[in-house]
Structure formats: C-alpha cells, structure tokens
Amino acid sequence: MNKLHINLNIDPPTVTAQQKKIRIVNGRPIFYYPNDVKRAKQLLYANLLIRRPQEPFECPVELRTIWRFRPGKTHKNNEWRSTKPDTDNLQKLLKDCMTDTGYWKDDALVVKETVEKYWSDTPGIEIEITALMHLRED
Fold this sequence. Notes:
Blueprint: E1 3-8, E2 21-25, E3 28-32, H1 35-49, E4 61-69, H2 87-100, E5 110-119, E6 124-131
Parallel strand pairs: 4-5
Antiparallel strand pairs: 1-6, 2-3, 4-6
Helix pairs in contact: 1-2
C-alpha cells in the first residue's frame, strides 16, 4: 500500500497526551492519565480501529493531518484555530493511538509531517499517510 486517506467524522479531542498527572503513593511517583484523556484515547481508538490498514506501514511515511474543530461564538467557519491545543500535542496523542491500532510499526516511521487546525462547521480529523522512498528525493 502506498497511500491511505481516512476521515474521522468526530469532534476532535482537545485534551492531549501531555496532560498526564502524577501522584505520590508510598513515596513513589505514579503517572496516570486523567479521565478526559482516557475518553479521548477511547474515541480515537474506536474510530481508528475500524479504518486501519490490513498491513501496517513498515517504511518511512509522510503524515498529513487536518484538525477541524466546531466553531464557538467567537470563531467563523474556515478560520484558522490559533489557540490551544498546540498541533504538536494533538499529533502526539493521535500518533500514539495510530501506533497502538496498527497503522505502522512505530511512529518513528513518520519522517515528514504537515498539520493544520481550523474552525469548521463540519468537525473531524482528516488523515493521509503516504509511503516514501527509502532515499530522500531532492
């Protein structure tokens, strides 16, 4: 497979993997995900599992992602979302979920990445994965 294009018709989560919490139990730090992060992961898992490729990508890939968030009272359709969450934090949670659901062997295979986020009357996450040649084309 050279290319995979999927569209998750969901309200994208706004919590990120960086929102881990820590508590001390018997003098030792315990890291955990709060419930809203767990729910976001479950939402992504459920929608990614039914669209995963038959075979995971095993070569370098390009990942293009478009995050479309439902606009509130102060934003317009197709306006760039220049507020939190940051694109790198959104991508981390998504790529971790894509690894766990079998899109690739490891998200280290993502060697080229483009991310957009904007307000949209049709919320969702659009994902395109393209297999790349092993040698970089100049």
